[in-house]
Each structure stands twice: as structure tokens, then as C-alpha cells.
Design a protein that fits this description.
The complex is a heterotrimer of chains A (220), B (247) and C (637).
Chain A (H helix, E strand, L loop, with lengths): L1 H8 L1 H26 L5 H14 L2 H30 L15 H4 L1 H21 L13 H9 L2 H28 L13 H23 L4
Chain B lengths: L2 E8 L6 E8 L8 H14 L22 E2 L2 E2 L21 E5 L8 E3 L2 E2 L2 H10 L19 H11 L6 H5 L6 H12 L8 H14 L10 H5 L7 H16 L1
Parallel strand pairs in B: 1-5
Antiparallel strand pairs in B: 1-2, 3-4, 3-5, 6-7
Helix pairs in contact in B: 2-6, 3-5, 5-6, 5-8, 6-8
Chain C lengths: L14 H8 L5 H4 L3 E5 L3 H13 L2 E5 L17 E2 L11 H11 L6 H21 L13 E2 L9 E2 L5 H19 L2 E4 L2 E9 L2 E9 L5 E5 L2 E4 L20 H8 L4 E2 L4 E7 L22 E5 L16 E2 L1 H5 L9 H13 L11 E4 L1 H27 L8 E10 L2 E2 L12 E3 L17 H24 L9 H20 L5 H16 L5 H21 L11 H25 L23 H4 L1 E6 L8 E6 L14
Parallel strand pairs in C: 1-2, 1-10, 2-6, 10-18
Antiparallel strand pairs in C: 3-5, 4-5, 7-8, 8-9, 11-17, 11-19, 12-16, 13-14, 13-15, 15-16, 19-20
Helix pairs in contact in C: 3-6, 3-11, 4-5, 5-11, 13-14, 13-15, 14-15
The chains are: A mainly alpha (220), B alpha+beta (247), C alpha+beta (637).
Bound molecules: flavin-adenine dinucleotide (FAD), protoporphyrin IX containing FE (2 copies), iron/sulfur cluster (SF4), FE3-S4 cluster and FE2/S2 (inorganic) cluster (FES).
């Protein structure tokens, strides 16, 4: 136990946690995105899918628990790391020019905050139904929930913007996590992150399509 | 050519400092950056002002003494080049050049552009070695070292301990420096017995010295005069994770 | 004074072995009771401090840089010799010994040099054990290259950064001892005086370069590994901070200074580019393995190198020294360059340069191999000159590089002051009148790892120094003297900067005590230097205070010492009317312009004894006896 605590005390330990929880997140969003895309095959498909998920009962709660713990750990570690890293340079430079660090890597922290806001609102929106921009909400008709809300321009916009944040977050995160975990292989150009870029684009597109398509009237 | 410098001046440890402007007229493009500062200092001294203090020694890019943040880049604009090997031909007439010391909690400023990098020595002290007291070594060829291992080790071993990685890192992390030593010794058969003990103690020391953690910005690799790869950091992470799981 | 060399009796091959048996030992439990001061963290000092710490002595170690790892040894590029004969090309301890003695033009002690060759073998073993990443063959065996002055391949190397890797090995061993508490490290601390009490070295006085605090340190023995004094020439391949202060102040406290005029001018350095030049950069001698040295046949030929046909090129080293060719020893290669430039055949603007051409090697071996071997050197060259040596030949010119002279030491590396030991470049011991490439690293590590740790025990066990404290008047006086000197520097408030004096001194030394020396020139220098010294003390401008980091003040102290040392060098050069190794007296050359020794009158070590700044130092002679090699006129033809 205190071996684990000792490990977590170090920055490498915290990054390990961020990496693992981050990868869990990636796994989840990949699955979630593919599920979402069922809206293109009509109401029944996605409603059935949603119904199937709910029918798994226990499993669903286990998954939710894992996700919840992951997000919390991810955030806690992020906050602690950010604190440590800020403290490491009390007096800044009058002039510093980032040379190779990506904009994505430099916006992880704010991007993360936006993602947090998104996730909270999002769960209130579709899962609990406490937030009803479109007025109506149905526990069973996921399809209409989607259509109703994304017809509203600012709801759609909020989602689209959040998905940009997600894309950026993963453009850096998907690349850096495997390094934090020490599993990436040595390479000629370690800064190359084509795979991460691919992943980020797929997720960004996959998610963004839905609100856009609904708003544009292709769905519903 | 004629330049304008903005240089960090600070009288002593813990005192307040600020950026001060200096004209640097008729500078030759063939001068090294430090020779340019020499010229400025000669003029300052003759004018009865105090010359700018900066660390330097070998002026061959190998001792790791020189340590200037030049226009927001550690060791200046030229890749794989220490400040002392940077030449004025990398600048053009009329340029304004900002010169600052390495900035990090672990590197307190001593005077002007001179900082205390003792933290790096203490990281080596914690485990950056192979315990092989003098005498008793077997014949050098008794142990074969594959060329690939020797080369990988040498790539990391070329670290000059300048601290530019810390200076360039937005988190002021000493990860590249520490990882370079861990890779240097970790790639060699001689380094295996202490491999995990080494990484554990060095990383712990790095933490104690108030450096930041690595969040993979990659700036250090770009600033490193020896172009040491951040793959060494991945390796350090791996070894540290293994060490923590097994220690 | 009397110079007791303490060379052990018996046959050459048995001397060191036998000596180690005959030396007194300090029992392990008592070692902790003895304190040793080691000044310097280079290959000599670093290795010594680490090893003495391992043995259990109570060590204090000093360097002026901010970290022991930055000692100038770090800059060594080419490699380190060892008589391993891994290449099976006929090398042996005896051959390394012979090459070194001959390379030194028969002005070194047989016994010391043989011990060096013997120990060379253990050095490589030790360094590999420490994790020094020497170059390897694909099979995993160590790889070797050849170096000047030898016809066997015995040089071990780590890319172009051999000194760095060897020093890091010693530095890591040192840091380990610091961690274990057996060594206390004082970085950014400069030794300013040696304290001698009843004829024994009992400590040093230092200045903390950050706070300016003057402090005393007591010990039972003092070891100086403070490096060479090549910077007396202002422009040299040495680091800016390299200085003679430690050995010079020891000299003034009674340590004899041996062969001060023996300086090595390295043939392959990047030529001077302007007035502002602050130091010269060495291009490792290893380049001469594949590079061919040439100049145009015609004087004043200003065509670009590629426009000059083979027939109009003079590969003068290959022409004059067919058997060694481009690998002729340094002193010879340097004088060769000077000659052709004096004939007006030099290249580059200013005409002070010769070509080092890789075209053939690249044709023969291909770009890749050359990049493998010299990549980082080529880059360094291009960074400095803005020319690409893969395309245009390098321009090189000789530069001051190494000082064979230094404090006189006996076989135990102890100076003429009891308890004061001197190792590495700071002593005079092993290289005679000229040092062969890749042999200084060897000597530094031999002294530090293997000689001093043995011989210092013998001294301590014999001398049993009694306990004293820093309150002893001798320390108080030394501190007061240092303080007075510092205050004096700051109070002059003259017109000229310290550097301007250093530059002027350097010019005098280069012109009159450089590659070629003659009676008239040296006498001229002996007039100019005291004048310059006088002006220095009248007119130097040292800004700032003594209670802070003050780099001008540090320099002032070093230049003040150089201004005295320079005079001793000229005096030594003047008295030695023969030519030998790096010391070339124009009066003494063979018909075809080679250095001509005068073994009749000069087969001795000139050990100078201090007699006050304004008085002539006293010359003591240690005759050199050669029982094993027979003195021959050195020929590399
Ligand atoms: C550019 C270059 C390349 C070289 N290449 C080779 C090579 O390839 N092969 C080879 O064999 N040799 C080579 N040499 C020579 C060799 O590097 C040196 O002779 C050798 O490293 C000297 O080691 P050292 O320990 O005696 O002194 P140094 O390494 O110079 O160490 C001197 C130490 O003394 C300390 N010091 C000095 N004065 C004081 C003081 N007053 N107070 C406190 N501390 C002080 C310094 O801080 C430093 O730690 C090269 C030399 C140069 C300049
Ligand atoms: C819930 C709000 C979130 C916050 C506040 C947040 C914050 C952060 C921060 C600050 C980092 C940078 C860590 C560092 O290297 O310093 C980071 C990394 C990362 N994040 Fe997030 N994030 C959040 C959500 C997510 C989500 C939803 C995912 C996945 C879909 C994710 C995946 C990752 C990954 C993979 C990394 C890289 C971890 C590493 O480099 O080891 N994050 N996160
Ligand atoms: C435009 C993009 C998105 C759409 C259209 C969308 C749609 C939905 C819908 C309809 C649900 C409810 C499913 C149900 O109750 O059966 C849901 C749940 C959820 N979504 Fe999304 N989502 C999107 C993006 C995201 C992203 C980027 C994340 C994470 C970073 C995310 C995380 C979640 C979570 C955690 C739940 C709750 C799952 C549960 O516990 O039941 N969603 N989403
Ligand atoms: S890793 Fe590179 S930048 Fe960091 S100290 Fe070593 S040489 Fe300097
Ligand atoms: S810049 Fe800093 S964040 Fe890591 S990759 Fe380099 S140490
Ligand atoms: S001064 Fe030595 S590396 Fe720059």
C-alpha cells in the first residue's frame, strides 16, 4: 500500500495514473462514439442499443463506477501535477518562445476543464435528464432526446466546441500517455504523433457528425 | 553589425533584478555569442559599470558551463548548439536580443546570468553511477558490449549537464538530464546490477529538488545541445514503474 | 634544495611492484583519521579524490567550476592510450614506454614512464567497469584508433568525447563518495594559497567565488591536480578558467617548478578569426588518421583549394616524413605548418593556416564512415567557421595546447615540499619535452586512480603529521595576505581591463616563447614582461567588490600569477640552448631544420626554485639517467 503511495507521490507516478485513466477514457469514447453513430440507422437502432445497455444492469454500474473513479483520479492527478509544475518555476521568463511543443499540449489544462464541464452537463443532459434544453426528455427514446436538443443551435454548438476540445486533448494525450506508461518504442523522431492525430480526428469527426447532422436536418 | 541587448541584471542571490538594455555596436558575425558578451563587458568595465556575469569555461560546447536563455530559447536559436558554440551570424543587424538566466526553483540565480545547478550533481550523487571502486576490475574485453548497446549508451552519455532541458521545460523538469544518465548506464551490461535501485534513488532525488514533472512537451529535446532524445524519458518511466512495483 | 627522485632500485619492470611492497601502509581503521585535500576534479584530481574516499581517507575536494564534472579534462576529444595490444599489432608495455620516452625527446624519467605504461592497462579495465561507453566493434570488443607518434593502434576512444566520458566516470565515482560522506566537495571555490608548517604542506587558503569568503582548510596532505598553464599565452585550447594559480602559489612556498618552458603547440586547431578571439578550438589529432595535410606549392596562391591540381599541392608531412606522414608527432607537425606559412604558402585570409583534406578518405571510405568517425568534430568545425569540411578542406593552424612543464615531483608524485603531491598536467613527470597524443588522459588517470592512492599512504604512515587547527598563525598570515592582495586589486582602479593585459602578455609569449625561440627574442621578452607586470599593478581596472561573485577579480588573480610565471618560462627557455621536443631553439637545429638535442649538456630536468619576484630563481638540476633506452636523435622520416 505505502509502496503505491510512494509511487504516486512522484510526478512519474501521477502521470502513470493520468495515462491509465486517460486510456480508459479513450477506450470509452471510442465505444461511445460507435454507439452514437447508430442514430444514422434510425430511431429503433439506437433506442435498442440504449435499451440493451440498460438491460446489462450490474455490468453497466460496474462500467459507470470504473469511469467515475477514472475521471476523478484523472482530475485529481491533473490538478496536483499542475500545481507541482507551476511551483517549479516561481519566476518566469520575460521572453520565452515555445519551440516544438504543440498548442494541444499547452492547452491540456484548460481543455481538460472544458471537458469536465461538458461531461457534467452532458450526463445531466442525456443520462439523468435533469437538464432539458429541448423541454421534453424520455427515459427510453434516446433518439428523440438527441434530435430535440440538437435542433437548438446553441446546444449543438456547445457539443461541437466541446468535441474540438476533446480532439485536441487526445491529439496530445493519446501520444503522451504511452510514454508516461513507458511503453512507446524508441524512434527516430519521438515527436511524431501521426497515430494520435488519426485517433483524435476520428473521435472528433465521429462525435461531431451527430449534432451537426441533426442540426442540418439529415436526421429526424 | 549593431545589436541591442536586454540582459537580466541581479546583484546577488535572492535580490531583485530586472532586464537592462545595452547597445552592442559593430559586432562581427564571426564572433561567438560569448565573445560578443566579452566585448560588451570590456566596454562596460571601461565605462566604470559592472560587467555582466555569466558562466562559461571550455567554450567548445562540452563542459556545460554556459547557460543562457537567448530570445526565449535555451542556448539560443541554433539546434544542437550550446551558447558558446552559437555564432553571431545567426543574428542580423539591428536585432534586439533578450538574454536571461535559466529559470527554475531548483536553479536559484547567484548573479546576473549565473545560476546554481548543484541540484543536478545531487541527482547523480543519489545513484548516477556504477559502484565499481578502483581496482579489481576484470579485463576490459572480458565482457562483450554489442555495438548497438554501446552506441545507444553513448548517445545518452553525451549529456553535458548544462541544464538547458530544465530551462526550456515549461514545467522546469529535470527529466531529460536524469533520464539521460539512467539510459547511459542502463544500456550497458555493467549497469544492470544497480539498474532499478539507480532509477528509484535518482527519481526520488529529482523530486526532492523541486523540479517539475514531465508532461511530454518535448521542449527539452529541442533545446538540448546534444540532442538527447525524450525516448530516454520513456525508458526512465518504464524502469521507475518496474522499480516501484518490485522495490 | 636537493632533488630526491626516490626511484626504486631494481630492473625497470620490477620497480613499481617492488616499490608498492616496500611502501609503508596505513591500516584501514586509521585511514579515517587522516585528512587529505585534493585540489582539482579533473582526471587527476577527480580520480584521486574518489579513490582516496573509497580507501577511507577523510577527503576535501575543490574546484573553481560550479560542478566537478566541468573540469577541463572534459574537453579531451581524441582518446586514451593503453598497451592492451588488443589489435595484435605488436604493441606491448615496453613499446608504449619506449614511444612515450622517445616522443618526449628523452627528457623524461624512465621509471615514471614505464610505470605509466604498466598502469595504462588497468585504466581501461577500471573505466569499462565504471560504464565508460568506449567505441566497440560489432562483435562487442573494444575498438582502437591510431594516434600521432605511434605505429600501433592503441588508442581507446568514445566518439570525439573521450575526455568527457572518462571524466564522467571519475566524476560519478566522486559523487558516489560525496554521497557516502567520505568526500566533502567545495565547488566554485578557488585555492589561493598553500600553507606550509615546519616544512610540511598542512593545508590551503581558499576563496568562495560566490560569497567572496576567504577560508582555511587543514589537512595531513595536499594533492594538487589543477591542470596546465597554457593560458599564459592567452589564446590556447585550454578552457578560459584554466590557471596556474594553485601551482604558482605552491612554487612561491617552496615547491620547485620543472621545465616550465616545455609547452606543446598542437598542430590541428581552428585558425584565429579576429581580435576578439577568446580561445582556440582543437580539432582532434585523430583527424590526421584520414585527413591529409597540404599547402599550395606556390607562395601566395590564392586559388580555392579545389582549383589547385594535385601537382601544385605540397603534402609536406608525407613528403618529409614518409614513414609517419600525417601522423608525425605534434611538435614536428606544428613546426612544419609554421615553416610553410613563413614561406608565404599559408592558406585562408591572414595566411596563417594549412589544409587538412578529407577528399581522399571520403572517396576511399565514403561519407558515412567519415561521419561515424568524426561527425561531431566536423559539425563543430562548421559551426565555428561556417564551412563544410565534407566539401572544402579544413583550415588548421597550430595553437598552444599542453604544458609538459609543471611542479617537480619525485617517483611518489611528491613535490619538494613534504606532503604536497602534484598529479596530472600540473606536474612535469611523464612527458619530457613533448607529449604524445592520448597520453595525458592516461597520465591523469594513472596518477589519480593508481599512483597517489598508494604513495600517499606511504607518506602519511611515515610522517605522522601532528594535529593542528586553522587558528595556527601560518593560516592567519596566509589569509591576511590573500585579503590584502584582493583589496589591492580593487583599489588600483586603473584604465585597462584585466583581459587587455592578458592579451598583451599572450602576444609576447607567442612571439618570443612560442613555436620557435631564440636568444634575442627571449631576452626581449624578459624585458617586456616585468614592464607589463609593473603596469598591471599600476593601471589595472578591477570593478566590483570582494564580497560577491566577481569574475573580473578572479581573472585578475590568475593574470597576476601568469605575469610572473611567463618570466620563469622565458628564463628556462633561454637557459636551455638545445632544441628538444616542443622547445625549439633556432640556434640548435640539424642541417635539414630538425630539432637538435644537446645530450652532453642538457640531459637533465631543470627545477627552478623561487627567490622572490624580482630576484632570479635558483636553477636545480635532476640528471636524467637512461639505463634501458639509448638516446637517439628522434627521427620520424
Ligand atoms: C581541447 C583539448 C583536448 C585534449 N585532448 C586530449 C586527448 O585526446 N588525449 C589526451 O590524452 N589528452 C588530451 N588533452 C590533454 C588532457 O585533456 C589534459 O592534459 C588533462 O585532462 C588534464 O587533466 P588534469 O586533471 O591534470 O587537469 P584538469 O582536467 O584541467 O582539471 C583541473 C582542475 O583543477 C581545478 N582548479 C584549477 N585551479 C584551481 C584553483 N586555483 N583552485 C581550485 N581548483 C582549481 C579545476 O577546477 C579543475 O577541476 C586535451 C586537452 C585539451 C585542452
Ligand atoms: C474530465 C476532465 C479532464 C481533465 C480535467 C483532464 C485534464 C488533463 C490534463 C491536465 C492532462 C495533462 C496531464 C499532464 O500530462 O500534465 C490530461 C492528460 C490526458 N487526458 Fe485528460 N482530462 C480530462 C478528461 C479527459 C478525457 C475525457 C479523456 C479521454 C477521453 C482524457 C484523456 C487524457 C489522456 C490520454 C491524457 C494523457 C495522459 C498522459 O500523458 O499520461 N482526459 N488530462
Ligand atoms: C456529440 C457527441 C455525443 C453524443 C451525441 C452523446 C450522446 C450520449 C447519449 C445519448 C447518452 C445517453 C445514453 C443512454 O442513456 O443510454 C450519453 C451518455 C454518456 N456520454 Fe455521451 N455523447 C457524446 C459525447 C460524449 C463524450 C465526448 C463523452 C466523454 C468525454 C461522453 C460521455 C458520456 C457519458 C459518461 C455518458 C453516461 C453513460 C452512462 O453512464 O450511462 N459523451 N451520451
Ligand atoms: S540533457 Fe541535454 S540539455 Fe539536459 S543537461 Fe544534458 S545536455 Fe544539457
Ligand atoms: S520539456 Fe519538459 S515536459 Fe517533459 S518532455 Fe521535456 S521534460
Ligand atoms: S562553455 Fe563549456 S559548454 Fe559552453
Amino acid at each position: 500500500m505505502n509502496r503505491a503511495i510512494q509511487f504516486y507521490r512522484t510526478a512519474i507516478g501521477k502521470k502513470f495514473v493520468m495515462g491509465v485513466t486517460g486510456l480508459i477514457g479513450i477506450g470509452y469514447v471510442l465505444a461511445h462514439m460507435s454507439g452514437n453513430l447508430l442514430v444514422f440507422s434510425g430511431p429503433d437502432a439506437i433506442n435498442a442499443y440504449a435499451h440493451f445497455l440498460k438491460s446489462t444492469g450490474k455490468l453497466l454500474w460496474i462500467a459507470r463506477a470504473i469511469l467515475l473513479v477514472a475521471v476523478i483520479l484523472h482530475i485529481v492527478a491533473a490538478v496536483q501535477l499542475t500545481r507541482q509544475n507551476r511551483a517549479a518555476r516561481p519566476e518566469g521568463y520575460a521572453n520565452r518562445e515555445p519551440q516544438v511543443s504543440t498548442w494541444a499540449s499547452r492547452t491540456m489544462r484548460w481543455g481538460g476543464v472544458l471537458l469536465l464541464i461538458f461531461i457534467v452537463l452532458h450526463v445531466l443532459h442525456f443520462t439523468t435528464g435533469d437538464w432539458r434544453p429541448g423541454g421534453s426528455y424520455s427515459k427510453t427514446d434516446v433518439f428523440s432526446n438527441i434530435v430535440v436538443s440538437f435542433r437548438i443551435w446553441w446546444v449543438a454548438l456547445f457539443y461541437v466546441v466541446s468535441m474540438i476540445a476533446l480532439g485536441l486533448h487526445l491529439y496530445h494525450g493519446a501520444w503522451s500517455s504511452i510514454r508516461s506508461l513507458g511503453v512507446s518504442q524508441p524512434s527516430r523522431n519521438p515527436l511524431n504523433r501521426t497515430i494520435a492525430l488519426g485517433l483524435a480526428v476520428i473521435l472528433w469527426l465521429g462525435f461531431t457528425l451527430v449534432p451537426v447532422a441533426v442540426f442540418a436536418g439529415f436526421i429526424g | 553589425m549593431n545589436l541591442r541587448l536586454r540582459v537580466w541584471r541581479q546583484a546577488g542571490p535572492g535580490q531583485k533584478g530586472q532586464m537592462v538594455e545595452y547597445e552592442a555596436p559593430d559586432i562581427s558575425p564571426d564572433m561567438s555569442f560569448l565573445e560578443m558578451l566579452d566585448v560588451v563587458n570590456e566596454r562596460l568595465t571601461e565605462a566604470g559599470e559592472s560587467p555582466i556575469a555569466f558562466d562559461h569555461d571550455c567554450r567548445e560546447g562540452i563542459c556545460g558551463s554556459c547557460s543562457l536563455m537567448i530570445n526565449g530559447a535555451a542556448h539560443g536559436p541554433m539546434k544542437g548548439t550550446a551558447t558558446c558554440q552559437l555564432h553571431m551570424r545567426s543574428f542580423k543587424d539591428g536585432d534586439v536580443i533578450d538574454v536571461e538566466p535559466w529559470r527554475a526553483k531548483a536553479f536559484p540565480v547567484i548573479r546576473d546570468l549565473v545560476v546554481d545547478r548543484g541540484a543536478l550533481d545531487r541527482i547523480i550523487q543519489a545513484g548516477g553511477f556504477i559502484s565499481a571502486a578502483t581496482g579489481g576490475a576484470q579485463d576490459a574485453n572480458a565482457m562483450l558490449v554489442p555495438k548497438t548497446a554501446a552506441d545507444a549508451s553513448m548517445d545518452a552519455a553525451s549529456c553535458i549537464g548544462c541544464g538547458a532541458c530544465v530551462a526550456a521545460c515549461p514545467n522546469a523538469s529535470a527529466s531529460l538530464f536524469t533520464a539521460a544518465k539512467i539510459s547511459h548506464l542502463g544500456h550497458l551490461p555493467q549497469g544492470q546490477p544497480e539498474r532499478y535501485l539507480r532509477v528509484a534513488s535518482m527519481v526520488d532525488q529529482m523530486e526532492l529538488e523541486d523540479f517539475g514533472g514531465c508532461t511530454l512537451y518535448g521542449e527539452c529535446q529541442e533545446a538540448c545541445p546534444k540532442e538527447i532524445s525524450i525516448d530516454t524519458i520513456t525508458r526512465m518511466n518504464r524502469d521507475f514503474i518496474v522499480a516501484s512495483a518490485t522495490r | 634544495m636537493e632533488l630526491k627522485a626516490r626511484i626504486p632500485a631494481g630492473p625497470l619492470e620490477k620497480k613499481w611492484d617492488r616499490h608498492r611492497f616496500e611502501m609503508k601502509l596505513v591500516n584501514p581503521a586509521n585511514k579515517r583519521k587522516y585528512s587529505v585535500i585534493v585540489v582539482g576534479t579533473g582526471l587527476g584530481g577527480g580520480a584521486a579524490a574518489a579513490t582516496l574516499g573509497e580507501l577511507g581517507y577523510n577527503v576535501k575536494c575543490f574546484c573553481f567550476q560550479d560542478s566537478p564534472r566541468r573540469a577541463h579534462s572534459i574537453a579531451a576529444q581524441g582518446g586514451i592510450n593503453a598497451a592492451k595490444n588488443y589489435q595484435n599489432d605488436g604493441d606491448s608495455i615496453y613499446r608504449l614506454f619506449y614511444d612515450t620516452i622517445k616522443g618526449g625527446d628523452f627528457r623524461a624519467r624512465e621509471a615514471n614512464v614505464y610505470r605509466l605504461a604498466e598502469i595504462s592497462v588497468n585504466i581501461i579495465d577500471q573505466c569499462v567497469a565504471q560504464g565508460v561507453p568506449f567505441a566497440r566493434e560489432y562483435g562487442g570488443l573494444l575498438s582502437n584508433r591510431s594516434f600521432g607518434g605511434a605505429q600501433v593502434s592503441r588508442t581507446f576512444y568514445a566518439r570525439g568525447q573521450t575526455g568527457q566520458q572518462l571524466l564522467l566516470g571519475a566524476y560519478q565515482a566522486l559523487e558516489r563518495q560525496i554521497g557516502l560522506g567520505s568526500v566533502k566537495m567545495f565547488p566554485r571555490t578557488e585555492m589561493l594559497d598553500l600553507v606550509v608548517i615546519d616544512g610540511k604542506a598542512r593545508g590551503i587558503v581558499t576563496r568562495d567565488l560566490v560569497t567572496g569568503k576567504i577560508e582555511s582548510h587543514v589537512a595531513d596532505a595536499v594533492v594538487l591536480g589543477t591542470g596546465g598553464y597554457g593560458n599564459v599565452f592567452y589564446l590556447s585550447t585550454n578552457a578560459k578558467g584554466s590557471n596556474a594559480t594553485a601551482i604558482w602559489r605552491a612554487y612561491k612556498k617552496g615547491a620547485a617548478f620543472a621545465n616550465p618552458c616545455f609547452t606543446q603547440i598542437h598542430p590541428t586547431c581552428i585558425p584565429v578569426s579576429g581580435e576578439y578571439q577568446s580561445k582556440l578550438t582543437l580539432m582532434s589529432e585523430s583527424l590526421r588518421n584520414d585527413g591529409r595535410v597540404w599547402v599550395p606549392v606556390k607562395a601566395g596562391d590564392k586559388r580555392s583549394p579545389d582549383a589547385i591540381p594535385e601537382t601544385e599541392r605540397d603534402y609536406y608531412l608525407e613528403r618529409k616524413y614518409p614513414s609517419f606522414g600525417n601522423l608525425a608527432p605534434r611538435d614536428i607537425a606544428s613546426r612544419g605548418a609554421k615553416e610553410v606559412c613563413d614561406e608565404g604558402r599559408g592558406v585562408g585570409d591572414g595566411g596563417l593556416g594549412v589544409y587538412l583534406d578529407f577528399a581522399d578518405a571520403i572517396k576511399r571510405l565514403g561519407d558515412k564512415v567519415i561521419r561515424e568517425r568524426y561527425g561531431n568534430l566536423f559539425e563543430m568545425y562548421q559551426r565555428i567557421t561556417d564551412e563544410d569540411p565534407y566539401k572544402v578542406p579544413m583550415r588548421i593552424y597550430p595553437a598552444v595546447h599542453y604544458t609538459m612543464g609543471g611542479l617537480w615531483v619525485d617517483y611518489n608524485l611528491m613535490s619538494t615540499i613534504d606532503g604536497l603531491h602534484v598529479i596530472g598536467e600540473a606536474n612535469f613527470s611523464d612527458h619530457g619535452a613533448n607529449r604524445l597524443g592520448a597520453s595525458a588522459l592516461m597520465q591523469g588517470l594513472a596518477d589519480g586512480y593508481f599512483v597517489i592512492p598508494n604513495t600517499i599512504g606511504d607518506y602519511l604512515a611515515g610522517a605522522r603529521p601532528e594535529k593542528i587547527g586553522t587558528d595556527h598563525p601560518a593560516f592567519r598570515d596566509a589569509e591576511a595576505a590573500i585579503d590584502a592582495q584582493t583589496k589591492r586589486f580593487l583599489s588600483i582602479k586603473g584604465k585597462r581591463t584585466v583581459d587587455s593585459f592578458h592579451r598583451e602578455l599572450g602576444k609576447i609569449m607567442w612571439d618570443y616563447c612560442g613555436m620557435a625561440r631564440n636568444d634575442a627574442g627571449l631576452r626581449k621578452a624578459l624585458e617586456l614582461i616585468p614592464k607589463l607586470r609593473e603596469e598591471f599593478w599600476q593601471n589595472v581596472n578591477v570593478p566590483g567588490s570582494d564580497a560577491e561573485l566577481n569574475q573580473a577579480l578572479e581573472k585578475a588573480g590568475r593574470i597576476a600569477d601568469y605575469l610572473e610565471l611567463a618570466e620563469l618560462m622565458c628564463r628556462d627557455a633561454l637557459h636551455r640552448t638545445e632544441s628538444c621536443g616542443g622547445h625549439f631553439r633556432e640556434e640548435s637545429q640539424t642541417p635539414d631544420g630538425e630539432a637538435m638535442r644537446d645530450d652532453e649538456n642538457f640531459t637533465y630536468v631543470a627545477a627552478w626554485e623561487y627567490a622572490g619576484v624580482e630576484n632570479e630563481p635558483k636553477l636545480n638540476k635532476e640528471p636524467l639517467v637512461f639505463e634501458n633506452v639509448k638516446l637517439s636523435q628522434r627521427s620520424y622520416k
